[in-house]
Amino acid sequence: MISNNKTAGLFGLAACYCLIAMHIYWPNRGGSGFYLPWNLVGGLFIALFILGAMLLSRPPLAVSGFFNRLAPGALILLLPLLWTKNPWLGEALPRLLGLTLGVAAYFALLQIPLDRLRRRRLLILLLAATVIEALLGLVQYGLLEPGNAMGYNPLKNRPYGIFQQWNLMASFMATGLALALYLLSNRRPLHRACNG
């Protein structure tokens, strides 16, 4: 478990990713998973978050009932790596690396004491990331011309934000809407939610 006063750096790292790094467009050839540059940036931020949480935590390490089931399940999903042949190994590794990073990030998040105020701040941060992506989608929908730097095709006019796939943008927006509804249902004045 990490003491409360050491969590500010980890929260700052999460804020840097959600408010800045996540929304930077890098030209690429498309693809999925770790073939897209911002997924690599996201993986790097997750790895730094895990490293910071593990360096700051002290025994006993916190676990949950869900984690006690998640970790063995992830290990079972990693078993086919033992007998996978070379041509398919390159396709499987990025996906399984993402799975491993996700499980490790959840374990690292368990080490951070998230009281009600910190949990609310984290959710507001994720909602802010959704709002930034929504604004980027509006810019794509209404302002971008053919031949723009993002490679967005205004003739199709299906905004995709930074995700390059409109269905991912839709899922992210739906998650943001759910967050907004949750935060509204547990409403407190915004200045109190941010300041304690």
Structure overview:
GO terms for molecular function: ligase activity. The chain has about 200 residues and is an all-alpha fold. The protein folds into two domains: about 1-115, no CATH class; about 115-195. Helix content is about 65%, strand content about 0%. α1 runs antiparallel to α2 (about 35-55). The longest helix is centred in the middle third of the chain and has 27 residues, at about 115-140. The model has no long low-confidence stretch (mean pLDDT about 85).
Based on CA atoms alone, the radius of gyration comes out at 19 Å
Whole-number total of structural domains? 2
- The DSSP helix count reads 7
Helix content: 55-70%
As residue ranges, the low-confidence spans are none
Average pLDDT for all residues? 87
Silhouette: globular
Structural class: mainly alpha
Biggest beta sheet summary: none
Strand content: under 5%
By DSSP, the count of extended strands is: 0
Secondary-structure element string: HHHHHHH
Oligomer: single chain
N-to-C span: 22 Å
Give a concise summary.
Pfam families: PglL_A (PF15864). The chain has 196 residues and is mostly helical. The chain has helices at 8-19, 37-56, 65-78, 86-110, 116-142, 166-185, 190-195.
Layout of SSEs?
Blueprint (H helix, E strand, L loop, with lengths): L7 H12 L17 H20 L8 H14 L7 H25 L5 H27 L23 H20 L4 H6 L1
Helix pairs in contact: 1-2, 1-5, 2-4, 3-4, 5-6
Which key features would you list for this structure?
ligase activity; ligase; 196 residues; mainly alpha; PglL_A; 2 domains; transmembrane; single chain; 7 helices; membrane
